[in-house]
């Protein structure tokens, strides 16, 4: 159940970021409102699955760089997870997450992380126990 809640929270965060001028675009489902919501939920699920499955391994591999940069390398890891999610959505024919250049997408990944953290603290059932 936690995966579904975190996926919905991430979908809201991605939707907010697409409203900002940060070169993050979600393609698919433009014909119907419910289809568009489904596209955002799918992208939120892909990002959440990548964060649950791949991010612990990446965090472990990036630990020396995080220590050297006093934790700032975590932003690069967040960008990489967003890039990986964008690549994974290219495999789905009806929903695609498109990102821009490195620096602007790094800011988008930071904003997605902040919004997700805030909403996870507010929404019941989204926190880790």
- Give helix % range: 55-70%
Most strands sheet:
2 strands, antiparallel
Could you state the order of secondary-structure elements as H and E?
HEHHHHEH
* Beta-strand residue fraction: under 5%
The N- and C-terminal alpha carbons lie at a distance of: 13 Å
Please count the beta strands (DSSP E, at least 2 residues each). Answer: 2
Question: How is the largest sheet built, in terms of strand order?
Answer: 1-2
Task: Give the C-alpha Rg.
Answer: 14 Å
Poorly predicted ranges (pLDDT <50, ≥5 residues)? none
Shape: globular
Whole-number tally of structural domains: 1
Give the overall pLDDT as a whole number. Answer: 93
Structure description:
With about 130 residues, the protein is mainly α. The protein has one domain (about 1-120). About 70% of the residues lie in helices and about 5% in strands. The chain is built from six helices and two strands; from the N terminus they run αβααααβα. The chain has helices spanning about 1-20, 35-55, 55-60, 65-70, 75-90, 100-120; strands spanning about 25, 95-100. Strands 1-2 form a two-stranded antiparallel sheet. The model has no long low-confidence stretch (mean pLDDT about 95). It comes from Demequina sediminis. This is Phage holin family protein.
Summarize the structure.
With 129 residues, this protein is mainly alpha-helical.
Summary keywords:
129 residues, mainly alpha, two-stranded antiparallel ribbon, 70% helix, Phage holin family protein
Q: Helices and strands in order, then pairings?
A:
Layout: H1 2-19, E1 25-27, H2 33-53, H3 55-61, H4 63-68, H5 73-89, E2 96-98, H6 102-122
